[in-house]
Design a protein that fits this description.
Elements: E1 5-10, E2 14-19, H1 32-52, H2 58-76, H3 83-91, H4 102-118, H5 126-137, E3 155-158, H6 177-188, H7 195-209, H8 216-230, H9 242-247, H10 249-262, H11 265-304, H12 309-320, E4 323-324, H13 326-333, H14 337-350, E5 354-355, E6 365-366, H15 368-371, E7 390-393
Antiparallel strand pairs: 1-2, 3-7, 4-6, 5-6
Helix pairs in contact: 1-11, 2-4, 2-12, 4-5, 4-8, 5-8, 6-7, 7-8, 7-11, 10-11, 13-14
Length: 399
């Protein structure tokens, strides 16, 4: 346990965990299995970055990956919003007919995009982490819990409504945060570890420190992708571990607790690297499927709408916004409403679009072939998963 930190008694009769600075001492033991997993993860990540480099209009596809990650990361925290809810929210700025917690997902999208842009002028740091947290919690559940500020009181992790004496884990007390966060920030800039080992250590340490009253999990998952992009291992933010962590949530919590209780960094890193490999391979498969599908649909449009550049422009638009209305097509393509309506109807006839409302007016259309690549059955609504571990504070509030 002293390898990772120690539990120290606190006033109130509980023990809080005080983490040791990273890197671990004694150092990570890169045995044959861990070395193999690191090599596999590096190769899988390299293949993903390579295929991403040949995507046409890559920013259009990145937008969908960011949305998907936002949905999955927020679902881990208990929201019910789906990818379609987010797309519908974007289509209808007033947010009608969408779950109230969709705003949490939209905030996550904004935080990711903000973080990527901010990295061009500011290194990954405590300052940037606070800025991301402020965006995540603005105007949503937890918004009253000092967005953008590190906590000033004790929090704990456990089942919803539990007392601090029933907690599964108690992070360091607030008065210890300046020291442990300063150590954490120093390690953020460490380059002596293999990058993926570094990412795994950073994520686990952040979750152990739990520096905010709410939103720690979402910030911790953002850090993984931002680190990879900052170090330019990924040119585009296409790797998101929420997909993997959601499917293996119970093991995820167990591995983190084994780090704290037993100093088992190697077990956590094996789990983490398997996730990097699995998610990289899945994202590479999706990127390749997008390339094939786009070319097939371009050929279909060229054959059925000979000489129509508007059809190809609409297809490109669908990769950015796969849920749309005729009015949106009119605006984006700069054409008349009648032309937009004919284009949409043609795409329906081709099997590219499906009308989803059944209404006569204000109809909405869905690009099913594309969206199906981002909606694996494991994560569709109705999937039963273990309840999340809630973060609670001294007032009894919880995530």
């Amino acid at each position: 346990m002293m390898r990772t930190g120690e539990y120290l008694p606190q006033i109130g009769g509980y023990r809080a965990f005080i983490p040791r600075p990273l890197p671990p001492e004694p150092p990570i033991q890169l045995d044959s299995e861990l070395t193999r997993l690191l090599s596999e993860a590096d190769r899988a990540l390299g293949r993903l970055d390579g295929v991403a480099s040949i995507l046409p209009n890559p920013n259009l596809f990145v937008a969908m990956y960011v949305r998907q990650e936002a949905v999955l990361s927020s679902q881990i925290e208990g929201t019910q919003s789906t990818l379609e809810d987010v797309l519908q929210f974007e289509l209808d700025a007033k947010g009608h007919e969408t779950p109230s917690d969709v705003a949490e997902v939209v905030n996550y999208v904004q935080a990711m995009n903000y973080g990527l842009e901010r990295l061009t002028t500011l290194p990954l740091s405590l300052r940037l982490i606070r800025e991301l947290h402020a965006i995540l919690l603005t105007g949503v559940r937890g918004g009253e819990r000092t967005p953008g500020e590190f906590r000033r009181n004790q929090n704990w992790i456990g089942p919803a409504g539990c007392s601090i004496h029933e907690a599964t884990f108690i992070p360091p007390p607030a008065e210890q945060l300046p020291t442990v966060l300063a150590d954490f920030e120093r390690f953020l800039h460490d380059t002596t570890q293999p990058l993926l080992i570094h990412c795994g250590l950073v994520h686990a340490q952040f979750e152990t420190i739990h520096p905010f009253i709410d939103g720690n999990g979402r910030v911790g998952r953002l850090l993984i992708t931002l680190l990879l992009c900052e170090r330019q291992v990924l040119q585009l933010p296409l790797l998101y571990l929420s997909y993997y962590l959601k499917a293996h949530r119970a093991e995820y919590y167990d591995r983190l607790m084994a780090v704290r209780n037993d100093g088992n960094w190697e077990g956590w890193l094996r789990f983490f690297l398997r996730g990097i490999t699995e998610v990289s391979q899945a994202a590479t498969t999706t990127a390749r499927a997008i390339l094939i599908m786009r070319e097939e649909h371009r050929q279909l449009i060229a054959a059925r709408m000979e000489g129509s550049t508007a059809g190809l422009r609409l297809l490109d638009q669908l990769f950015e916004q796969p849920l749309l209305t005729v009015r949106l097509v009119e605006e984006r393509l700069g054409c008349s409403y009648a032309t937009a309506a004919k284009l949409v109807e043609a795409f329906v006839q081709f099997g590219l679009l499906r009308e989803t409302t059944g209404w006569q007016r204000n109809r909405r259309f869905r690009y099913d072939p594309y969206l199906s690549l981002f909606e694996p059955s494991l994560y569709r609504p109705g999937t039963v998963l273990p309840p999340p571990a809630h973060t609670q504070n001294a007032e009894g509030d919880y995530d």
